[in-house]
Amino acid sequence: MSGATDAGTIRVGIGGWTYAPWRDNFYPKGLVQRRELEYASRHVTAIEVNGTYYGTQKPATYARWRDEAPDGFVFAAKAPKRVMQARVLARTGPQVEDFVGGIATLGAKLGPLVWQFDRGVRIDRDDFTAFLALLPKQADGVALRHVLDVRDPAFVDGDFLALARSHGCATVFTDSAEHPSFADLTADFAYARLMRARSDVATGYPTAELEAWASRAREWAEGGEPADLPRISAEPAPRRPRDVFVFFIAAAKERNPAAAMALLAALGGD
């Protein structure tokens, strides 16, 4: 179900696993809440954890998540907002180390770490550059991948892309009118957060749209760039195999598990 190709591996998932409406249309009736992660992690291939944005968890909690999920599954996770909202980003080294040191307990099931800078938060470019130098490449023998989700349109430009690329950080394709939405590749993996699910479509997206996303995911995995997605720079990224992470987030959230499973089915022949 991971959508593996001859190039990178495509993982598809949802945001979190605790959402009351999913108990009516995703989880089996009567499933106890403590087993929802166990169930969800066997029907999608990745989950983006939002709760870590509001506070770090204890290593024992990460260990429990790790042990409940199957081999091959990964957790992406948002970094704590107290880091990105700090007055001086360059001084957040201890907080970065604290977060990374704990979540590294996930081991091989640790996916990308998302550093989300919300709209309205002023970013100084020099300070931001110093902050990127704080992001570790590994922790406890676990290789780390970092994603920059910058939501200030004025900051998102060619210089930002060059900075992300120089530090090996990916950027987010948001597929959203609310946030900057661009598909430039800046790392050895691609990261998309799809936010257009509709409540009146059982799978969130019509079949044709899901097939189009399957095609784009394959293109990314094989090292290319989908020609129908917007980019900031006209310069193509180096062609090389890339792992791909696609998450169905927000919008008609009750439909996101069905959307993820439908996309995995569309990728099933790979």
Please give a structural write-up.
By secondary structure, this protein is of the alpha/beta class. It has one domain: TIM Barrel, CATH 3.20.20. The chain has 9 helices and 10 strands. An 8-stranded parallel beta barrel has the order 1-2-3-4-7-8-9-10. The chain has a two-stranded antiparallel sheet with strand order 5-6. Helix 8 links the parallel strand 9 and strand 10. Helix 8 packs across helix 9. The mean pLDDT is 95.
Spell out the blueprint of helices and strands.
Layout lengths: L9 E6 L6 H4 L10 H5 L5 E4 L9 H10 L5 E5 L2 H4 L8 H11 L6 E8 L7 H8 L5 E2 L2 E2 L2 E5 L7 H9 L3 E4 L15 E6 L12 H15 L21 E6 L7 H11 L4
Parallel strand pairs: 1-2, 1-10, 2-3, 3-4, 4-7, 7-8, 8-9, 9-10
Antiparallel strand pairs: 5-6
What's the β-strand tally? 10
| SSE ordering | EHHEHEHHEHEEEHEEHEH
Report the CATH architecture. Answer: Alpha-Beta Barrel
What is the terminal separation in angstroms?
10 Å
* CATH topology (level 3) name: TIM Barrel
H/I helix tally: 9
CATH superfamily: Protein of unknown function UPF0759
Query: What structural class do you assign from the helix and strand content?
Result: alpha/beta
Quick tags:
single chain; 9 helices; eight-stranded parallel barrel; globular; 29% helix; alpha/beta; TIM Barrel; 10 strands; two-stranded antiparallel sheet; 270 residues
